[in-house]
Amino acid sequence: MNKVIIAPSLLAADFRNLEREFEKINSSEAEWIHFDVMDGLNVPNISFGFPLLEATRKLTDKYIDVHLMIENPSKYFEEFKKYGADSLTIHYENQTNIKEQLQAIKALGMKAGLVINPNTDVSVLEPYLSELDLILIMSVFPGFGGQKFIDATYDRVKQSRRLIEDSGRYIILQVDGGVSLDNSQELIGAGADALVCGSALFKENDFKGYVVKLLGK
Fold it and tell me: Among candidates 145, 105, 98, which has minimal Cα distance to 120?
């Protein structure tokens, strides 16, 4: 099994005390920061843009994992690279020319990922495996933090792991939505490499300790 990556979801951070939040992240064993970008069209919510991404890059050396829930994402790939994204993950749903978009992300020097929602069959990932650095399995429907984890995710992670192993490629398998100590070890056991954790992590007084527990240490 590969080393597990914990990616705190910035969507759950306290924006009144953002510098303090980054101090907690930077001093923890979390390796990535998960950065959700929503435009109110692709999903029913609006979140961050380039100014916050630029500030995030200045506040941390952690890997910035950008999850795009926007219309026409390829229009902005170069700007996401400019402001500090290390990877861009686009949704399978409501997108066209997916392979070309993945190739464009990689051509800019970023890692490329593909996300599927809880009601999308895992098999749709198969045509894109040759272009992928990351697969993101949503364990809630995207748009809002704090949702209840969907139990069917465990089987979807196992199915995705089999696809990755059959491809012979190194692709990080990530899970996002409702991740906590209640399910982290079962997700890792099912084959997840990276766990996005938001509300459960940021509400904890012992941020660093919770990250360690998520890792199963």
Answer: 98
Tens digit of pLDDT at every position of the chain (217 positions): 468 999 999 999 999 999 999 999 999 999 999 999 988 777 767 778 899 999 999 999 999 999 999 989 999 999 999 999 999 999 999 788 999 999 999 999 999 999 999 999 999 999 999 999 999 999 999 876 667 899 999 999 999 999 999 999 999 999 999 999 999 999 999 999 999 999 999 999 999 999 999 999 8
Instruction: Please identify which residue in the block is written with the tokens 């949702």.
Output: 147
SS3 of the chain: helix, strand, coil, percent, to 5? 40, 20, 40
Active-site pick, 39, 176, 182, 206: 176
Compute the C-alpha angle 46/50/52, nearest 5°.
80
Q: In angstroms, rounded to a whole number, what is the distance separating the alpha carbons of residues 125 and 189? A: 21
36 tagged catalytic:
yes
Task: Please tell me which residue in 14, 36, 193, 206 is annotated as part of the active site.
Answer: 36
Can you give the pTM of this predicted structure?
A: 0.94
